């Protein structure tokens, strides 16, 4: 029982990432009809926003320490971050410690700007082209973005820690009546799940309860009619692209302490997120969220030793097996709408 | 005046013979003149450096490339000469190799066997490379070594740690300076016993490819010989990035040691996940839970950050070796000075092994008096040398594996700077890590005959 609870918890944070990426993918597909293979790269750039903020806050000046020598025998130097110099050791170190949450403020405008530039500069030229062309150009863009990141940040993962206060683990077992240390779960992963829930709720609320959201939803249902009413739906869809980029970016920022950011992480999530979108139903926002959590938890269960012993290799194919079963039984996915990609 | 009898069949025959001749690969036509592949005919000789310039090991590949460039500079008499001055053999004089200036071409393995083979093939056939070196993945090294054997060039392996490289997949044209999984386990076992005792239960997470399998097999055998029990061994995909679902079953498995048979980015991520789930703060069976990483690298320690503190592993070499362990390891400081002055930071163990391999190849050619790979192979087989940073070393003739001291290291608790992330715990003498050429972990293959490509 404790193993099952652990795997459910484990699936929640991975499912949160899938859900957030798939939500953005669905927003872009639903509004602009574009299959965006660069969406994983936006998640990756979000993670590197956290790395960048941490590095900016850690920018230091060097002081020569004549009592020590460096590896070449020259007088040694030590670094003092400007933030620590300006704000004192305690408050300054605290600011650096909180660099990941602070990176959210940095990432929102950056990601929206990247989304706008991507959409206006490249993707809008492919609206009337076949989906295959859109996939090729966005996939190419994803490769360019990851190579740019690799050039500036290197190929190795970069540790980007959560604030000290969230670095421990929470003993769920005690809460549920188990022995201590039986079901423990990292605090930051709980934070990530809560953060994902807030972002998903905010996106749904924005679409459901604002005039802007209502127009966008109307445009998703019938773009031509909304256009005939004199509403500039293209402008709103461009804004939605920026919003989707921001959602992916924020998912990446907060994921940085869970897995050290590396230039390839976007590709790792991209394919699985597309499967999530298909299983949830193309164009369905609730479907993307539901499928994200469902597949995250199933993937986690499939990695249990007992399950692998029973069906070797199942952990690597479970998501695709589920996708096949869902598509055979419900060809439009779990919550797919009639008419989407069926013309 | 002679009369020419041109027939349709005659033209076709002549054309076919001429076409076949023209279609011969460059390396075969070169071999036909000299008796071996890519015999240098001008005043230069070309070496091929095949390293991961993209993919998960790209940072290690970059450091290997820096070392190769430095070695070529020193061979050509540029720079401060590095380890040429400390190397026990004095056949090299800074005028290239056998009077020919050394040039090099580079390839990107992408840490993928097929890409690495394609890249090595191109360097041999198009660029005329007479020797291929490089590494960072045993899967890649085994694949490229096989290609070099077929093509008739020497393969001087870079960073490859699987037993198979000089075990079941060994080849007469291939040579490895780096240590292997068996040696890591043999060096680590006594230290693990001292640190953690003989009554331990280990849970292994293992990268699912040749290096992971042999690393796990070696460390399991060595720790079980101490009295440890193996609770489980779970294979993890090489492409995995989130190991949390593999870590959580460890929590209640009864194990009190987690052995991470992971390397590079895999190790950084799995260790991070293990620390996040509180394994290092956990008490099991009345003992502190411990994590062991059998193969270490400075670059991995940098990637893992604070999580690496106190974690024990093994290394082939460390830039602090001569300063801390004495003049036996001469050459280390000369290399660190050269590398540090050129690039601004100390070299990694990947860099050191690649630099040493380049010098060893050049020295063997100089001693043999030819670039013929079989003569170079004879010069390397059974060669005893010193002054390349690892202490006295033997290139064993039976399997083309170097035998030298092995370092047991641990993550520094309070590193004084970013270059002191790893501390040397002890140096295990060569005798303790030497094994019989017919050891079961290395069985199943044969060196075979040297192939000069002719």
UniProtKB/TrEMBL annotation, chain A:
Subcellular location: Cell membrane
One GO cellular component, as annotated: plasma membrane
Keyword Transmembrane: yes
Signal peptide: none
Gene Ontology molecular functions: transmembrane transporter activity
InterPro entries: ABC_transp_permease, BCAA_transport_permease
Entry's transmembrane regions: 16-35, 42-61, 98-123, 190-216, 237-258, 270-298, 310-328
Keywords from the named record: Amino-acid transport, Cell membrane, Membrane, Transmembrane, Transmembrane helix, Transport
Domain of life assignment: Bacteria
Membrane protein topology class: Multi-pass membrane protein
Keyword Ion transport: no
GO biological process: amino acid transport
Xref: Pfam families: BPD_transp_2
Family: Belongs to the binding-protein-dependent transport system permease family. LivHM subfamily.
UniProt-recorded name of the protein: Amino acid/amide ABC transporter membrane protein 1, HAAT family
Protein source organism: Puniceibacterium sediminis
Automatic annotation (TrEMBL), chain B:
Gene3D superfamilies the record matches: 3.40.50.2300
PROSITE patterns in alphabetical order: TAT (PS51318)
Any coiled-coil regions, as ranges: none
InterPro entries: BCAA_transport, Leu-bd, Peripla_BP_I, TAT_signal
GO BP field: amino acid transport
Domain Leucine-binding protein: 44-410
Highest taxon of source: Bacteria
Signal peptide: 1-30
Keywords linked to the UniProt accession: Amino-acid transport, Signal, Transport
Entry similarity comment: Belongs to the leucine-binding protein family.
Record-given protein name: Amino acid/amide ABC transporter substrate-binding protein, HAAT family
Organism: Puniceibacterium sediminis
């Amino acid at each position: 029982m404790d193993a099952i609870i652990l795997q459910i918890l484990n699936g929640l944070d991975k499912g949160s990432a899938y859900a957030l990426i798939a939500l953005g993918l669905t927003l872009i597909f639903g509004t602009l009809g574009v299959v965006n293979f660069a969406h994983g790269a936006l998640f990756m750039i979000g993670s590197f926003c956290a790395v960048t903020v941490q590095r900016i806050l850690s920018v230091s000046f060097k002081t020569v320490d004549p009592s020590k020598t460096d590896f070449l025998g020259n007088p040694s130097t030590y670094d003092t971050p400007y933030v620590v110099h300006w704000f004192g050791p305690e408050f300054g170190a605290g600011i650096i410690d909180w660099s990941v949450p602070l990176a959210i403020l940095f990432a929102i405008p950056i990601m929206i700007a990247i989304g706008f530039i991507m959409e206006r500069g490249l993707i809008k030229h492919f609206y009337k082209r076949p989906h295959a062309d859109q996939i090729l150009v966005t996939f190419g863009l994803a490769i360019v973005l990851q190579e740019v990141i690799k050039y500036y940040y290197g190929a190795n993962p970069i540790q980007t820690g959560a604030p000290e206060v969230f670095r421990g683990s929470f003993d769920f077992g005690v809460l549920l009546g188990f022995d201590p240390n039986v079901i423990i779960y990292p605090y930051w992963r709980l934070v990530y799940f809560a953060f994902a829930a807030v972002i998903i709720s905010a996106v749904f609320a924005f679409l459901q309860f604002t005039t802007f959201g209502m127009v966008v939803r109307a445009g998703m249902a019938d773009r031509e009619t909304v256009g005939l009413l004199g509403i500039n739906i293209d402008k709103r869809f461009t804004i939605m692209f920026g919003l989707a980029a921001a959602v992916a970016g924020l998912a990446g920022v907060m994921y940085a302490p869970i897995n050290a950011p590396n230039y390839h992480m976007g590709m790792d999530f991209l394919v699985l997120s597309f499967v999530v979108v298909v299983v949830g139903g193309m164009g369905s926002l609730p479907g993307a969220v539901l499928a994200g959590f469902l597949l995250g938890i199933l993937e986690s269960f499939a990695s249990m030793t007992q399950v692998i012993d029973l069906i070797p290799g199942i952990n690597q194919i479970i998501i695709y097996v589920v996708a096949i079963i869902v598509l055979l039984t419900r060809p439009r996915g779990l919550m797919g709408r009639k008419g989407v990609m069926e013309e | 005046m002679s009369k020419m009898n041109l027939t349709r069949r005659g033209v076709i025959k002549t054309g076919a013979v001429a076409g076949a001749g023209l279609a011969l690969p460059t390396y075969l036509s070169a071999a036909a003149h000299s008796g071996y592949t890519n015999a240098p005919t001008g005043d230069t000789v070309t070496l091929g450096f095949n390293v991961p310039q993209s993919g998960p090991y790209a940072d290690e590949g970059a450091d290997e490339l820096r070392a190769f460039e430095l070695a070529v500079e020193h061979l050509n008499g540029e720079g401060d000469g590095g380890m040429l001055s400390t190397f026990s053999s004095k056949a090299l004089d800074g005028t290239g190799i056998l009077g020919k200036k050394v040039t090099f071409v580079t390839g990107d393995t992408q840490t993928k066997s097929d890409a690495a083979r394609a890249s090595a093939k191109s360097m041999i056939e198009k660029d005329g490379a007479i020797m291929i070196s490089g590494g960072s993945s045993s899967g890649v090294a085994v694949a490229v070594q096989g290609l070099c054997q077929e093509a008739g060039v020497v393969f001087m392996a870079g960073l490859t740690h699987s037993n198979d490289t000089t075990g079941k997949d060994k080849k007469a044209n291939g040579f490895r300076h780096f240590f292997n999984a068996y040696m890591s386990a043999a060096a680590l076992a006594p230290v693990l016993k001292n640190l953690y005792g003989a009554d331990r239960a280990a849970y292994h997470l293992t990268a699912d490819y040749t290096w992971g399998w042999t690393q796990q097999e070696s460390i399991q055998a060595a720790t079980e010989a101490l009295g440890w029990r193996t609770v489980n061994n779970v294979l993890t995909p090489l492409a995995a990035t989130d190991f949390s679902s593999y870590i959580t079953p460890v929590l209640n498995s009864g194990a009190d040691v987690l052995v991470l048979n992971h390397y590079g980015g895999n190790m950084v991520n799995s260790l991070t996940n293990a620390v996040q789930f509180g394994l290092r703060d956990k008490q099991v069976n009345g003992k502190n839970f411990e994590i062991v990483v059998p193969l270490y690298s400075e670059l991995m320690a940098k990637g893992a950050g604070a999580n690496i503190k106190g974690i024990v592993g093994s290394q082939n070499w460390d830039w602090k070796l001569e300063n801390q362990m004495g003049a036996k390891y001469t050459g280390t400081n000369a290399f660190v000075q050269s590398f540090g002055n050129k690039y601004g930071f100390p070299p990694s163990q990947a860099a050191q092994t690649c630099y040493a391999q380049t010098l060893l190849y050049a020295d063997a050619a100089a001693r043999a008096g030819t670039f013929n790979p079989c003569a170079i192979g004879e010069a390397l087989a059974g060669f005893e040398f010193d002054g390349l940073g690892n202490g006295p070393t033997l290139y064993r003739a039976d399997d083309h594996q170097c035998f030298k001291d092995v370092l047991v290291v641990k993550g520094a608790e309070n590193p004084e700077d970013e270059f002191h992330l790893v501390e040397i715990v002890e140096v295990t003498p060569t005798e303790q890590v030497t094994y019989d050429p017919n050891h079961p972990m290395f069985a199943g293959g044969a060196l075979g005959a040297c192939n000069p490509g002719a």
